[in-house]
Write a structure and sequence with these properties.
Elements (H helix, E strand, L loop, with lengths): L8 H21 L3 H8 L3 H8 L7 H11 L8 H12 L11 H12 L5 H16 L9 E2 L2 E12 L12 E7 L1 H6 L10 E7 L12 E5 L9 E7 L2 E10 L3 E5 L8 E4 L3 E10 L6
Parallel strand pairs: 2-4
Antiparallel strand pairs: 1-2, 2-3, 4-5, 5-10, 6-7, 6-10, 7-8, 8-9
Helix pairs in contact: 1-4, 2-3, 6-7
Keywords: DNA-binding, Transcription, Transcription regulation
Organism: Pseudomonas aylmerensis
Pfam families: HTH_3, Peptidase_S24
């Protein structure tokens, strides 16, 4: 795997300015990196990568940070302030002003989307049309009778050597399930809107989890709650593995595939993002 390219001095300076503002105001506002991650709908690891200058700031994260800290975006990034202004207003006198999200995406695809596959174009347009019709609630998907919608995120959690996580998950599709049926299957959770779907990749957790099996996770579990299978990041890689505590400062990272060795990792270097509750192949976890 090639080494991640270092940010330019300008982009790094934006990250440093954002981090300085966050550090200076977080105590007074009662903020943490975890609460910032929650508000931005990204992982705690992704927040750390922004604030530490590993990934460049983007408009979505900048807008959330600005709102939570009650500071204008230009306080840490004039570049993004200008970009966000253009996105929201279309610019003074612009022909884009007042267009819906779907219309803007159609224009973008016409001008710049020639290299995209038809499936990618369809998904982008579908997401934009969804934004026009209803605000997507991260924590509270809509309920239909006894069935509820559970968001399915394109987060490839590697059941092997690990994968670099996306800057933020892209919503692909939802599934509709009955909370009562889930509980009848033995799935334990407090609220249905704590649940999300992800996809595992690789063979190291077979036979419990096979390559590309959908996984039901509880995103409110952000710390070790006992032996089990977790979604977590370590060394900027994303994993789905069993974790067991070894002493106070180490985890055993365990693969169900016995051809893979048990590894030991430091608790301080491990960021738990969710706990796996159910594998959509009927396998208990």
């Amino acid at each position: 795997m090639s080494k991640k390219k270092e940010l330019s001095p300008e982009l790094k300076a934006e990250c440093e300015a954002a981090k300085a503002l966050f550090v200076s105001k977080k105590n007074a506002l009662g903020l943490t990196q975890a609460s910032l991650a929650e508000a931005a709908d990204i992982s705690a690891a992704a927040v750390a990568m922004y604030l530490n200058g590993t990934n460049p700031l983007n408009p979505k994260f900048a807008a959330v940070l600005s709102r939570l800290l009650d500071v204008p975006v230009e306080k840490f990034s004039k570049r993004l302030a200008k970009e966000i202004s253009g996105l929201t207003s279309g610019g003074e006198g612009s022909a884009d002003a007042g267009l819906s999200a779907a219309e803007l995406v159609r224009q973008m695809l016409t001008k710049q989307g020639k290299g995209l596959s038809e499936e990618s174009r369809r998904r982008l347009l579908a997401a934009a049309e969804s934004d026009d019709s209803t605000e997507i609630k991260y924590y509270q998907p809509g309920q239909v009778g006894d069935e509820v919608w559970i968001a399915h995120y394109d987060v490839r959690a590697a059941m092997g050597g690990g994968q670099i996580p996306h800057e933020y998950p892209e919503m692909l599709q939802d599934i509709r399930v009955s909370p009562k049926h889930l509980r009848d299957l033995g799935v334990t959770f407090k609220e249905h809107f704590h649940l999300k779907m992800i996809t595992g990749w690789g063979q190291s957790m077979a036979p419990t989890i096979k390559d590309r099996d959908p996984l039901l996770v509880d995103i409110t579990i952000r710390e070790f709650t006992g032996d089990g299978i977790y979604l977590f990041s370590h060394d900027d890689m994303l994993y789905v593995k069993r974790l067991q505590k070894k002493g106070k400062d180490r985890f055993k990272m365990i693969s169900d595939n016995k051809h893979h060795d048990i590894e030991e990792i430091r608790v301080d270097d491990t960021h738990i993002l969710a706990r796996v509750l159910y594998v959509w192949n009927g396998q208990p976890v």
